[in-house]
Design brief:
With 391 residues, the chain is an alpha+beta fold. It folds into 3 domains: 2-126, no CATH class; 185-251; 259-386, Histidine kinase-like ATPase, C-terminal domain (Heat Shock Protein 90, 2-Layer Sandwich). Helices cover 67% and strands 9% of the residues. A 5-stranded mixed sheet has the order 1-2-3-5-4, with helices on one face. Helix 10 links the parallel strand 1 (278-284) and strand 2 (317-324). Helix 1 (2-26) runs antiparallel to helix 5, helix 2 (30-46) packs antiparallel against helix 4 and helix 5 (87-98) packs antiparallel against helix 6. The longest helix is centred in the middle third of the chain and has 92 residues, at 128-219. The relative contact order is 0.05.
Amino acid sequence: MRALQLAMHGLFVLLLLIGTIRGAQESSHPAPLVLGCVLLFAWYAAGLRLTPMRFGERRAVAGRVWFVVLFLGWAALVAVSTELSWVAFALFFLALHLLPRWFALAAVVAGTLVVIVAQLHQPDTATVPSILGPSMGAIVAVGISWIYSALRQESEQRRLLNTELVAAQEDLVATNDALSGAQRESGVLAERARLARDVHDTVAQGFSSILLLSRAGLAGRRDPEQLVEVLRQIEESAATGLDDARTVVHALTPSDLERSPLSAALQRLVDRQGGDLDAQLVIDGEERPLPTAIEAALLRIAQGALSNVRQHAGATRVVIALGFGDVLTLDITDDGVGFDATMPIVPSAAGGFGLRAIRERARDAGGHASVESAPGEGTSVHVEVPAEGPR
């Protein structure tokens, strides 16, 4: 748009300058012609800011008035010297740009007629090219303007289409996020309902049996044989309830820890990474049996950290280091893009839950987690938990 505007102004100035020079050379009294051309140029320059291309539709009326005065001044100069006829070509573009379609076409026709009439009134200098030239110029100007308008309209349609596509894509992402959230919530509610049923049908029933047997024993406390039988039944109910509780806890244990130690589960997690991410596991110290809850917490933390690396870090290498000492340590270090760890991370639909979940799991296990990172320097997650679990 800016280039077209500059080309249009440059064309007008160039044609006016050529016409002024040639007209002055052929005129016996060039002063009035030169003065008129200077005034015409001054009016043109003064009115540039009135064009709607620069100021919008609110200034369109002023721009059209400016063009009409410019057109009439040019027509008067053409009557003095036909050398200025070629300025019509630049005026055609201005008319097609500033005026409504039918007024612009009328201005083009009027300009063409002005040139033809001026040429015919000077038969000594009138030639077929001098008459047909401006006429062909009018046709070319209209054609170029039509092509430009068509291209501009198509470009606007594409822009609107792209805007609609982006809006539709954003709506789709929002819908998918909402659907994913609903599915997660549904899964959580279903799992809670299942656990509630399991606890109700196993542990709660066992406690109810123990309570009833205790009351029966207290009611018949004078009969030693009855007390012994009640105690035996209480023992059986307690043993059954303990087995049921262990079954429920086992159902919550990660499958990777069912028949293998934590190091083996972490190694399988590392082996599953593959692709363009080089993952390694380092064990520091002698591995020893750990409470299932601690193993599950550390495994879940490692899974969450690796998920963050894959989704956000853009890393090529990650190292998981598990240390067995007075306290258990777990470090996950990558060579990714990093981030400003001093800035708070607000969870949203786009993410931000991973690091918070890591800290919560470490805290629930009786320990703590910290994150060190900087833009372009990768990220390191450090976790410490007591080997015996939370106190």
